[in-house]
Every structure is written in C-alpha cells, then in structure tokens.
Write a structure and sequence with these properties.
Elements (H helix, E strand, L loop, with lengths): L28 E4 L4 E6 L9 H15 L5 E6 L7 H9 L1 H9 L1 H11 L5
Parallel strand pairs: 2-3
Antiparallel strand pairs: 1-2
Helix pairs in contact: 1-2, 1-4
Length: 120
C-alpha cells in the first residue's frame, strides 16, 4: 500500500490518525519510483482547519525521514478543500520555510507528537 508510511500520523486535534479521519487516502497518493517523485494530496477535516499547515508539515517531515534522499516530495491540499489552500501549499513547497519551521523547537515537538506511533 502506498499509504503505509503516513497512515499512522496522528491528527494534532483529534485522538485519531489522518487515515482514520480520511485526511489522507490511498487514491490521493501518486508514486513514481522511476522518477523518484511522490505527491500526496491531503484533505483537511474542515475548510477552515487551522492545523492544515501543521498536518502538511507532519506528512512532509515523516516522508523526509523515511524516504531515500533522491525523492522529490510534494505535499498539497486537495483542490477546493481548504480556504487557504494556495497559501498553505506555497508554505509546504518552500524548502527554506519548512527548514525554518523545523528549527522551531516547540513546533518540532508538536510534529514529533503527531508522528509518535503510540498515543500515550
């Protein structure tokens, strides 16, 4: 399954995974091994979800930690599912902004909590 790496990411606001909430779905994951390219589209639970950027960052961080460095990864909001879709997509695509976010200790702690497999 294409979603096996990201299926257990926890939602930052709910005691459920992104897969359980249908934020990430198999049909919205495109993998091209020959071109070392992966595109994931995710659907926030509500159009005004304040955690959309954090969810996207969590997906991106997990993929960066899990995939060979040769992969180019795009993490995008599914078209038409969030009011700030373009702004969030721009943030998630900006390597410098992602790197800066990961230098923020508090934000990194929150991301690591989303990526923790056990829920204790």
């Amino acid at each position: 399954k294409k979603s096996h790496i990201i299926r257990n990411i926890n939602d930052p606001e709910h005691p459920l995974t992104l897969e359980q909430l249908n934020v990430v779905e198999e049909k919205n994951i495109d993998v091209d091994d020959d071109k070392s390219y992966l595109k994931i589209m995710f659907t926030p639970t509500i159009p005004h979800c304040s955690m959309a950027t954090l969810i996207g960052l969590s997906i991106r961080v997990l993929l960066l930690r899990s995939l060979p460095t040769r992969y180019k990864v795009d993490v995008l909001i599914s078209p038409g599912t969030h009011v700030s879709e373009l702004a969030v997509n721009k943030q998630l695509a900006d390597k410098e902004r992602v790197a800066a976010a990961l230098e923020n200790v508090h934000l990194l702690n929150v991301i690591n909590q989303c990526l923790a497999i056990d829920k204790n």
